[in-house]
Model the fold of this input.
Amino acid sequence: RVPPSSDETLLDFLPSSNKEKSPIIECSDPADREVPALDNIIPNSPIDPYDMKHVVRFLVDEGDFFEIMPDYAKNIIVGFSRMNGETVGIVGNQPLIAAGCLDINASVKGARFVRFCDSFNIPLIILEDVPGFLPGTQQEHGGIIKHGAKLLYALAEATVPKITVITRKAYGGAYVVMNSKHLRADMNYAWPSAEIAVMGSKGAVSIICRGDPDLKKREEEYVDIFANPFPTAKKGFVDAVILPRDTRKRLCADLKWLRNKSQKNPWKKHGNIPL
Done:
């Protein structure tokens, strides 16, 4: 049998037109399947990388992930999968490359994919582990603020179901950009390993406690208080802190609940996307 071409595989995930909902096929992978392997996928050290594609394949139906533009801007992954038979778009930071930082190319790649999914009524699942925007004069001179705003704009304007799972780091402006509650996300989850803050604990302590003779102790205290998702959950910016093994069944239940979501933006001729 001749294997299908990439176009044929891609078309399998898409509806016949932009007026139809995302397609659903028969699925033998249980929607309430637990994934114990995810409980240990995050390294103990916050600076050690892991492969976000493994997280994706553990979560989706039959481990099937059709990645888009795999060789471009590898610090972000985008592609199509199915959850309980329904087509979904996956956007995830890739800690293996540049620690998962957002840069110009990653922002444009993510924004284009989000706009495509929104055009064809395909729900979005965001897997977030982002330490911030990539620093450096090259990025600044290239227009990182303008290009980074494209991803923010795309997610803010999208009216399809949008669900975020924070697996580890969610720092600074990049946290907001990656489908935070402030961008009208429908559901935001965090694993117990999540850290939601302006910056990492070491950088924060070096500023807040400058001149303190025992910075190491201050950093440990900071980690105990802030380097977890519970302060953010108390403020309502995270809907629930969940066990990694329960992520799939949460996502499948939410997608079913959001299947008939109807959200309209205020009327206007068009928005002023940053170009």
Observations:
- The first strand starts at residue 66 and ends at 68.
- Strands lie at 66-68, 76-83, 86-93, 124-130, 162-171, 187-190, 195-197, 240-241.
